[in-house]
Amino acid sequence: MDLVPALEEPLKKVLGPPTAKVMAEHLGLHTVGDLLHHYPRRYEERGQLTHLADLPMDEHVTVVAMVADARLHTFASSKAPRGKGQRLEVTITDGSGRLQLVFFGNGVHKPHKELLPGTRAMFAGKVSVFNRRLQLAHPAYELLRGDSEEAVETWAGALIPIYPATAKLESWKIGKAIQTVLPSAQEAVDPVPATLREGRGLVPLPEALLKIHRPHTKADIEDARSRLKWDEAFVLQVALARRRHADAQLPAVARKPKPDGLLTAFDDRLPFTLTEGQQKVSKEIFDDLATEHPMHRLLQGEVGSGKTMVALRAMLSVVDAGGQAAMLAPTEVLAQQHHRSIVEMMGELAEGGMLGGAEQATKVVVLTGSMGAAARRQALLDLVTGEAGIVIGTHALIEDKVQFHDLGLVVVDEQHRFGVEQRDALRSKGKQPPHLLVMTATPIPRTVAMTVFGDLETSVLDQLPAGRSPIASHVVPAADKPHFLARAWERVREEVGNGHQAYVVCPRIGDEEDDPKKAGKTKSPEDEAEKRPPLAVLDVADQLGKGPLQGLEVEVLHGRMHPDDKDAVMRRFAAGETDVLVATTVIEVGVNVPNATAMVIMDADRFGVSQLHQLRGRVGRGTAPGLCLLVTEMPEASAARQRLNAVAATLDGFELSRIDLEQRREGDVLGQAQSGARSSLRVLAVIEDEEIIAEARDEATALVAADPELEHLPGLRTALDALLDEEREQYLEKG
What we know:
This protein is of the alpha/beta class. The chain has a 7-stranded parallel β-sheet, sandwiched between helices.
């Protein structure tokens, strides 16, 4: 009978069912190996206390501090009417700040005896506010005793690991569980080939696991982290390299545009010349389409850099070569908009088979879920007969009923809104795998592209087409300088006076139930800005119409309106009948009104960096310069203000996406891209570790080219299986 390898041993057997259940449910840890890879978030030194001054609200924290003072109060309550209720208030300090702990009822006896002034302990709980002071109610705690009594094993070394924990399981309990399984680390199979490990001076994996959980010095932590970062980067890049290698073996029909075909006719009609960037990216795409393996390319472009034009030319070249092209859009509004603009750009070339159509023309059809039965039937017929060379649609394109005559290219717009399964389903509609072009308007730093879309080749459009105007951006500090806000509305009136239009964007719609305002308490301005609900479209539109923008044509647009009403509002705005559109972020993607030159974003601190950049891209689309005003009440020193200053300072989306990433945690970025699978990155930071990722990618590509099946590297195969449990394997397959 085979013994289960030590690291695959279920935690239930080692730690007992109750603890194992909490670990599985709250931390996703099931085996000894999972637990060994649950690394400390940071380390406390015994001599140095954590900063109580910067505790985050509403989060579970672990702090190491000393008891300064403990007082027992009695009070009367409904449960203890005779003044027998007891409340223990303990003040702890770490030199940087003080924090109050409170215990009630029968819970006061043990801490009253143990938490004497001068005692040092670790405390864990959720930070809340009471009487404008931070406190932990009923925290769990673990006393840190003097060296004499201290169990040497538990607090070995001077560094106390603090683990990502939950309310059900404090950091030190996780630490004790890890001490129990730590001996198994000796049996960890090393995924990194020995030559590579020695060449880079990395410590072996068992040693790294030991050092990360039980470091004696800061150098131990450094050694362990650099080794574990390499593992994560390398194993992930090997998975992606194998994916690319397998894709390169797939057959595809080479699609070469015929001379003097549809593409040439289209280029001849263009009223402008393509930018250098568009020409370069188009060439990369045409080269890929001409090979007998499926193209897998990611096209990232700045807001308004002309990605649709590049995609359309790729689709036309495939139609020239006898195939069909499908474009997948995330929403019906966007699908309709792409359809309208593509038909407009193509003119009579989009009228294949119709009177007045050009001889090289093809048919361009749209397919969405809400189409009438007759129109839908006709569209499906045009696809199966090959009459329609181009189809634009939502995920209605993926349904079983939809059949193509010869699908040659799939273009996916705004990839991050599409499930991988959906892309795959569309791919399976071709006789052979079709070529794939994925577009995104959210610029992604190079390393994130290598990590998240590592099986796609990347093209970048970073030049704006001629005629696009610069956008000036400014932060308007409404609380510190109210006259700046008054000036903002004057600027909007000036733009309208010059024949232009403006957007005002708000975080909410506004007919939701608001919390009754807590009256009678005076708060600091920072509190006020934090506590009041975000500004709402309906309220703001009302105030502007009666106040600073009186006499202008103001309309509202938000997600809860009926689709026909939304359409009508958008049409009136596009036609120039409305001066100011007060909207939620429904206008974030794809809205194109060249006459709109100004945008005021209310409560701008409530939006993410990339979102602000997307919104701002809606102005300055014509020949007149654009203006974007970021209104906020956050104080000057706050992180939110710094973020807005960064957005105002640059129009470079790639620069902003780096800032965005540095401020959010990596897990968020990969979490979105990994279809909900727990982010596999625990120590690798996508932005900081750019070099490691790039080097790991080179090593992985070379290794897979030499040994695609990894026959000589059993350790690496095991690590890959662990990374790509079924769900992830499929995720990457479909990526």
